Amino acid sequence: MKIFVTRQIPGDHLKKLGEGGHEVTISEFDRPLTPEELLERAKGVDGLLSLLSDKIDGEVVDAIGPQLKVVSNYAVGFDNINIDELSDRGIVVTNTPSDEVNEAVAEHTWALILGLIRRIVEADEATRRGAYKGWEPDIFLGTSLKGKTLGIVGLGRIGKMVARRAKGYGMSVIYTKRTKDPESEKELGIEFNSLEELLKKSDVVTLHTPLTEETRHLISNAWPYGQKADTLAQMKKGSFLVNTSRGPVVREHDLVEALKSGHIKGAALDVFESEPNIDPELFGMPNVITTPHIASATTEARDEMGKLAVSGLLDVFSDKIPSNIVKKDVWQKRRK
Ligand code: GLV
Ligand code: GLV
User: Fold this and answer.
1) DSSP characters for 245-296?
2) Do the two domains 2-97+298-333 and 120-286 of this chain adopt the same fold?
3) Where does the pLDDT of residue 223 fall: very low under 50, low under 70, confident under 90, or very high at 90 and above?
4) Which sequence spans correspond to the domains of the chain?
5) Which of 90, 26, 34, 95 is nearest to 58 (CA)?
6) Which one of the listed residues 41, 293, 302, 304 is annotated catalytic?
7) What is the Å distance from ligand 2's center to 154 Cα?
8) Per-residue pLDDT tens digits for 151-180
9) 313-318 — which CB contacts under 8 Å span 24+ positions?
10) Mind listing the pLDDT tens digit for each residue in 191-216?
């Protein structure tokens, strides 16, 4: 089988791809490919290993050709792939969900929460610049977490890991999700709220939803689907927002306005609405932390991602349903 990998990944997992006699080509560039570059290289392959920066839809897979059987996405999220269009064609899609990745994202979320409320980045910058002249009673006053409320939007595996860690800080945890999760409520001591209630009550709001049409611009100043909700305004005055999910869940421009007005006290963002572009106004704000989409960037997590991305492809080639298949029902009608 022919396999194209859109970019080199950490570790030596890709070696394994070639072991069964498969013909593997890896992009020669250390950057995302343009759509044209991707097509030129992927035409005629049976399997594609893609990254979250590659847009893969029906048009792309048709151009690659009718022999394409599997797209293995090196990410937990798969909003870069049009799952319905690929499923219609019988193309199997796999992703890389694993405890290691979810934990890395949960840990980064906590790094951001703590960095934000204790103003770590701002304080570090001032210290390095030589601004520290001796202890002062009122420099860089932060906010304590104990007794505060953490609002988790999206209680998937990552959301739950974030909730579990909140107990260590003595926070109350509330969550919102399409369907209530009574089992997790019992296990984690957390409480279900509507999105509106959650936003009203939370001192820190953290987002852990996948990006779907339902969650696009979930946090914005005006609900784009004809409802009246104005979710940024619903947030408690002086609260913090953390986003390690997907950038477009937040309308970035609206967040900038809410930060300027002081309604939102600070934000920590690992993802942005149109990556790699970032609203430059965010960089001028000391109460904002930005990281370049690195929530899953630990050696341990990337190692697991590499393993899963490779096994997804190889399983399909050896006619075994991958444990990490995104849509199980495609298996029955898969291309052979
Ligand atoms: C990273 O954002 C991922 O979805 O794995
Ligand atoms: C995805 O981001 C999840 O909630 O697991």
Assistant:
1) S-GGGB-HHHHHHHHHHTSEEEEEES--TBTTB--HHHHT-TTEEE--S-TT
2) yes
3) low
4) 2-97+298-333, 120-286
5) 90
6) 293
7) 7
8) 999 999 999 999 999 999 999 999 999 999
9) 313/3, 313/17, 313/47, 313/49, 313/70, 313/72, 313/94, 314/16, 314/17, 314/20, 315/94, 316/47, 316/69, 316/70, 316/92, 316/94, 317/1, 317/20, 317/22, 317/46, 317/47, 317/69, 317/70, 318/20
10) 999 999 999 999 999 999 999 999 99
pLDDT of 224 reads 56
For the Cβ of 97 lying below 6 angstroms from any atom of ligand 2, the answer is no
Mean pLDDT of 274-300: 97
Please give the number of the atom of ligand 1 that sits closest to the Cα of 305. Answer: 5
Whole-angstrom Cα distance, residue 242 to residue 253? 15
| Confidence (pTM) | 0.93
Interval 80-123: pLDDT, tens = 999 999 999 999 999 999 999 999 999 999 999 999 999 999 99
Q: Give the model's pLDDT for residue 225.
A: 53
Is 241 within 8 Å of 264 (Cβ atoms)?
A: yes
What's domain 120-286's superfamily in CATH? NAD(P)-binding Rossmann-like Domain (3.40.50.720)
Of the candidates 278, 279, 259, the one whose C-alpha atom is nearest the C-alpha of residue 267 is 259
257, 275, 281, 300: the active-site residue: 275
- Alpha carbons 220 and 251: distance in angstroms, whole number: 5
Length of the chain: 336
Containing H/E element for 84?
Answer: helix 83-88
Token pair of 79, please?
A: 């909003």
Confidence of residue 20 (pLDDT cuts 50, 70, 90): confident
Is residue 293 part of the annotated active site? The answer reads yes
Domain 2-97+298-333 has CATH 1.10.340.30: no
**Beta carbon of 210 within 6 Å of any ligand 2 atom:** yes
Ligand 1, CB within 6 Å, residue ranges: 52, 75-77, 296
